[in-house]
Amino acid sequence: MKSNQSDYGAMALIALIVPIWGSAWVVMKFLNIYIGAFNLVFVRYVVGFVALLIIQLALRQPLRASPFWFTLGIAVFQTTASQCLVQFALIAGGAGKVVMMVYTLPFWVALFAWIFLGDRPGKSHFLGFILAALGLLAVISPWRDQSTIFSMLLAIAGGASWAMGTVFSKMLFQRHKNINVLNLTTWQMLLGALLVLPFALVVPQSATQWSWHVALGLAYLGVMSSAIAWVLWLLVVRRVSATVAGMSGLGVPVFTVLLAWALLGERPTLVELVGIVLMLAGLAVVNLAAKSNDRPVAV
Fold it and tell me: Whole-prediction pTM value?
């Protein structure tokens, strides 16, 4: 299948993903008070797997195993390592700051896609990266608060892990033409749960404080953020270049910062608001460049 990097369908999918994942960051920050980090990741993936399994059975789709090594790579880097690192980062820092650090991932995606896929960024991409990097720097403002450095490093590592998982996904779609994305996500959720389980059993965590709002939050993370949004994300990665997909995700941290301001009282400063504008400008530059002169991507 041939797709343009400027695929309007992919941008529409991103528009659906942004509020789902943006809200998920605030939900995760809230749930960290009531459930241990590894237990949270494990439960959300079990819920996500069950939801996807029910959907596949309802659609009468065969539960055919996706290519194992690629699926395992996605599960290790994107489903497991990234999410566990993010949970620890959320414990140590505010939701708004952590999500901004995680979303250094477009730069990691661009680097890894260049190394492993030969997807060399163009001049317009670099301009977009510079604008987005300046925006991230303004939002993070490392010169103001040194107490969250450890949280930021964990979040950056989580973003790099997610980026590597994105590259694995792109490699899978390039080498296997007829991958069923729903089926791939189902196996990804199962592998993610199995990989996290030993940590959930061994690592000391606070006891889970069950209540209806904890169950509702976990259901949202499992069904919406893990199952549905991940299927949508893989469809985006399938349709556009890894670099454009990564940059398009910058809408998520912008949404999260504004939602964290409204719900958690994490009010952004004027400098941070300027940073958000710069990030959106970088996103616009990359996508406009894709529309005007980027080559089609074989998927």
Answer: 0.80
